[in-house]
Amino acid sequence: MRFTELFKVxxxxxxxxLDRAFEAKLEAFHTLYDVSKALFxxxxxxxxxxxxxxxxxxxxRDHPLFRSLYSRLFLDDEPLRWIGASFLLATxxxxxxxxxxxxxxxxxxxxxxxxxxxxxxPHLDTFLRLDKAEQRFMLIESQLRLAAIRQxxxxxxxxxxxxxxxxxxxxxSAVCRVFKAMKAAGIEFKxxxxxxxxxxxxxxxxxxxxxxxxxxxxxxx
Length: 221
What we know:
Layout: H1 3-9, H2 11-36, H3 46-60, H4 69-76, E1 86-91, E2 105-107, H5 108-115, H6 130-143, H7 146-155, E3 163-166, H8 168-184, H9 192-204, E4 213-218
Parallel strand pairs: 1-3
Antiparallel strand pairs: 1-4, 2-3
C-alpha cells in the first residue's frame, strides 16, 4: 500500500521491500512443506512443485535468476533503455473469473533455465536426477500451461526475455491445495489467524491454472 509513495523517494527500498516480502512467503511455504510433506504429495502438483523449486533457487542464491520485473527494470538496468519496450505479463484468474490483485512477476526464461534439463543451462537445478528433473518440469509446464504462454509471446513477437509469469496466483493455488488436504485430514486450524484464513483458502478461493490471462505492458517516457 505504501509502495507508490516510497518509490518516488527511494525506488530501491520500495522494490526490495516487495521482493523480500515475497521471499518471506516462499520461506513460510517451505516451512509448511517441511511439516506436512508426509501428508501431502507436493511434487505431484505443478503449483506446489514450482514453489518449492523457486524457493530453493532463491534461497541458495547461486545464480542471477528470479529477479522481479520491477527489480530488472529499475535496479538492474538504466530505465531509459526500456522506453518503447513491451512486456507480456501472464497471470491466472480465479475460477470465478476475478483477478488476483497482487502480483509478483518473474521471467519465464528464468524458470526454463533453472528447471528444464533440455536447455543444459549453467543455472540448472542439479538437486534432482536428470529423469526426475525432466518429470518435474513436464508436470509444471503442463499444469501451468507454460508452453501456451511461450507461444503467445512468440505469436505477438515479444522477446523471450520480456515474457513474465505472475507467481502470486500460483502461490495462492498451492496454499489452497495444501490447506484443503490438511482440513480433510482433520488437522485443527488453531488461533485467530488460522481460523481467519482457513475458510477462504479451503472453500472460497480457487485459481484456474489452466487458463492464463495476459496483459501487455508498454514502457512510456
